[in-house]
Amino acid sequence: MIEARSINKVYEDGTEALKDISFSVKRGESCSIIGPSGCGKTTLLFIFSGLLRPTSGEAIINGEPARLPDMKDVALILQDYGLFPWKNVFENVAIGLEIRGIPGKEIKRTVDSLLKSLNLNGFEKYYPKQLSGGMRQRVAFARALALRPGILLMDEPLSSLDALSRENLQNFLLELWIENKITMLLVTHSIEEAVFLGKKIVVLSPRPGRVVKIVKNPDAGSIEYRDKEEFFEKCREVRQSVEAT
Ligand SMILES: Nc1ncnc2c1ncn2[C@@H]1O[C@H](COP(=O)(O)OP(=O)(O)O)[C@@H](O)[C@H]1O
Ligand SMILES: [Mg+2]
Of 10, 91, 145, 226, whose CB has the highest number of CB atoms within 10 Å? Predict the structure, then answer.
């Protein structure tokens, strides 16, 4: 469903961002990507979302090279929320559905149910500046999920949140993944987050990013995993390969 085939990316100014990146993520699988700052993680997600072209190699989504505008099945969630400050919560979540010409009643039903599942009901008329960081990020999730994407690409979506909001949203993502069989690619700085949410963890080297290791993580997929000995062991294993880079 998602496949990196020997992706290389060299920017116009000669910066080598990614080198020979290959891995694949099956339909319904979740994959975390972890690596030091500047190693090309955002570049890789932009390539998968069709916003950037690789210099060589291919990013395959649903069997085709990732290319705008045929990316209807893909949602990209960024760290800085990307909400429209002049639109309220309801309008921010509804915008993609409106662009697609979905009837108003159906939009309301979809948005109401998403806001409820993200604990945002009652905040429909609030504007982004009136919300905490955690709430804004939940609005961003609601907006992305309104279009029912099969693939969710996330670039450190939780990294600016406090610990509690972060854990709540991690649980939300896990449940979303379990219930909807979404294919997830999550870029994160946090080893614990990578291990909690990724059935597979791709460890990248410092720039230019290469795949150092792909750690299998079959025990991921339950809220309880966070408290298990296997979880701590897996975190140690990932930490060792991150530190070895
Ligand atoms: N448009 C660009 N032109 C030149 N270099 C860039 C551009 N965008 C990012 N880079 C460089 O490419 C490298 C990888 O960046 P990025 O993908 O943002 O890394 P990460 O998300 O892992 O922190 C960095 O050294 C960054 O400075
Ligand atoms: Mg980045």
Answer: 145
